[in-house]
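Summary for the steering committee. One of the milestones for this cycle was to obtain a three-dimensional model of the protein with acetoacetyl-coenzyme A bound, which we needed before selecting residues for the alanine scan. The sequence and ligand used are listed below.
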Amino acid sequence: MENIKQEILDHTLIITINREKQLNALNSATILELSTALDEAANNAEVKSIILIGAGEKAFVAGADIKEFAHFSAAEGAELSAKGHELLFNKVENMNKPVIAAVRGYALGGGLELAMSAHVRVASDDAKLGLPEVGLGVIPGYGGTQRLAQLVGKGKAMEMIITADMIDAKDAHQWGLVNHVVEPEKLLEKALSIAKRTQRNSPVAINAAMKSVLANYEDGVNGMQEEIKAFGRCFGTEDFKEGTQAFMEKRKPQFPGK
Ligand code: CAA
C-alpha cells in the first residue's frame, strides 16, 4: 500500500492516511487502499476496532483530490461519488467493528465526510472542519449533505455547506460534530482509550447495536423493528450466554465473539 500505513496496537488497527505533502487528500488510489484495508480488517479476528488518522500535524484529510477530478465530465463526477460511497464511506459506516476518526488539523470536504462516516470522532483542539465544496462549484459528494445534517441538524448543516466556512474544534464539539476535543499530543491516546473501552464488550452485540442505530437513517427501514429483530438474535449468540453467565457468577465476561 503506497498511500496508507497500517499498524495493530492492542487489537486496534490504526490506519494512517499517508499523503502528508498533499494534506492526505483522497485520490482514487487512496480510496481503493482504504477500502481493501477495511475489507481485510472486517475479517481479521485480531482486529477489534479501527482508528483512522492522517499523517502529519496539518491535516486529517483536506478533501477529495481536486487535481484528480478537475477535468471530469458530469458522468464521471457521478461515478466518482457513487464509487466513493460504495468503496469507502458506506463501508466505514457499515463496518462490523467500531471505527474512530482521530482528527488533527484540516478535515475538509471528503475528509470531514470520512470522519462523519466513522462511529466516533475525536478531534485535537487545532482541528478545522468544513465542507468547502460549493466554493469549488461542486457539492459534498461523499455523503456530506446527509451525514452532516444527521449529526448537527439541518440548520447548522445548511449554514456550514452554503457558507463553505470552516468551524473550529470547540464549535464542532458544541454542535455534536465531534465527541471529544483533546490536545494534539493526546489525540491518538484518546482514540485508543475509546477503542479499548469498546473491546470489553461483546463484539457481536456492538455490531448489532451499530446496525440498529444506523437503521434509522436508511430509507424504507424501520429502525425500531430492526432493533427488535437484532435484540432477539442476540439471545441466540454465545456472547449473550457468556455475558449473562458472567454477570450471575460475578466475574468479567470473556466474549468468544460469536
Ligand atoms: N486536493 C488535492 N490537493 C490538495 C488538496 C485537495 N483537496 N488539499 C490540499 N492539497 C495540496 C495542495 O495543492 C498543495 O499541493 P502542492 O504543494 O503540490 O501545490 C498541498 O496539498 C499543500 O496545500 P496548500 O499549499 O494549499 O496548504 P495551505 O496551508 O496553504 O492550505 C488548505 C491548506 C486550506 C486546506 C488548502 O490546501 C485547501 O483549501 N485545500 C482544499 C480543501 C478543499 O476544498 N477540500 C474539498 C475538496 S472537494 C471534495 O472533497 C469533494 C467531495 O465531497 C467528494
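Key point for the committee: The domain at 4-198 is CATH 3.90.226.10 (2-enoyl-CoA Hydratase; Chain A, domain 1).
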